[in-house]
Structures are given as structure tokens and as C-alpha cells.
Amino acid sequence: MVRLNEIREGEVAITPPPPTDAGLTFIGRIHTPWTDRMMTPRQGRQNGPECQLEIFEPWVAALRGLEKYSNVEVLYWLHQSRRDLVLQSPASDKNVHGTFSLRSPVRPNPIGTSVAGLVKVEGNIVTVQGLDCLDGTPLIDLKPDRCQFTPIAPKQPGDDQKAS
Question: What is this structure's pTM?
């Protein structure tokens, strides 16, 4: 769903219940080249333009050690997205999909996530490649890519469980 407030053929909007947001704390702001949703890429690319994650105090100290990773998972709040579509037709081709089967920014809780290439960490600025959000998007969290991360804490019983 890219167009502003457009309802395409086959799409279904609902009246969502009043939000009972969980009290998120935005840890920073994302700076990208895109100020218009119509110009923003649909999916980030690892060779896309460099973007900066501006980390706010008191969270800057939490960046310590991040530079060891080549990829980071960036979670952000898609603050300009609608939250009311349960069925969407992303390509206006009359194929309708449930919201949870798409990576559309239109969601009940508009949380965006990208695995971005880490370029550098300088002070409170983390430079990455691979984002797909508007300039000024609120930053929720930042984590090492789980495929590169090895838990530091001792193993727990559930760590080695497999399907039976």
C-alpha cells in the first residue's frame, strides 16, 4: 500500500480498536534520502544508499561492540502508515492478500524491520545500507543480525531442543 489513503479494488479496511500502544521508547531517528513515500524503495537493498541511524542519549553507550558485526537488524516505527487494512492488493492486479502474508508497511502495528549492512559506527551515528523507510522515521531498536550473533550467556535447557 503505497498511495496515500488509497483503497484498491478488493482491499478491505476495518475500524481498528483504539490503540493501546505498549509505550515504546524511540531510541533514535533514521536519516534516509527519501522524503516521499512514492520514492522510497519497496525493499531495502544491501547495495542501497548509505543511511544514518542517529542514536539518542542515554542509548549511545549501548552501541559498544556493534562494530564487530557486518549486518544489523534495524526495527523502526512506520509512523506515516495506515493501520486499518486486513486485505491488501499491493500491485492493483486484483490479487488480494492478507496483511500478515505481506511485507507491506500497512499493518496493525507498523513495525518495519530490515537487515542492513553495517558501514561504520561513529559516536552516536550508525551508518548502514539496506533501509526502505522515510527520512525522520523513529528508530525502535537495533540488534546484531541473529545469523552472526553467538549468545554470550551460558546455555539454557531449551537451547538444544528440536522438534520431536
Answer: 0.84
